[in-house]
Specification:
Blueprint lengths: L1 E6 L2 E5 L2 E2 L11 H8 L7 E6 L5 E5 L8 E4 L15 E5 L2 H6 L2 E2 L2
Antiparallel strand pairs: 1-2, 1-8, 3-4, 4-5, 5-6, 6-7
Length: 106
């Protein structure tokens, strides 16, 4: 199964699942997950999937990183104020490159 995510050539995380436009379950419904993460993930990022540990993979909708895939680390998030980007890692310049870079989980 191609569920391993690499960053800088090393294993970084796993894809638990991607969100679906009309997911049958709460955990994989895109619209529900957008609402669930509102106020936690900075504006300008669209949540597209989740790791088994609860971190979120996001698509950047803002310049200059528009189209890039980021990893949002829930353990480093600012839950006491405005969302910040200090807990976000740019994994790939595009969704296509991100998908092509998936590997067998380690």
């Amino acid at each position: 199964m191609l569920d391993g995510v690499r960053h800088n050539g090393e294993h970084f995380d796993f894809i638990g699942h991607f969100y679906a436009i009309r997911g049958e379950m709460y955990y994989n419904d895109l619209v529900r997950q957008i609402g669930e993460h509102e106020g936690m993930i900075p504006k300008g990022y669209l949540p597209i999937g989740e790791s088994p540990g609860g971190d979120v993979f996001c698509l950047s909708l803002k310049k200059p990183t528009e189209g890039a895939v980021f990893h949002w680390d829930h353990e480093e998030a600012n839950y006491d104020g405005e969302p910040w980007e200090f807990n976000m890692t740019n994994l790939s310049p595009s969704l296509a490159a991100f998908l092509e870079g998936l590997c067998i989980g380690e």
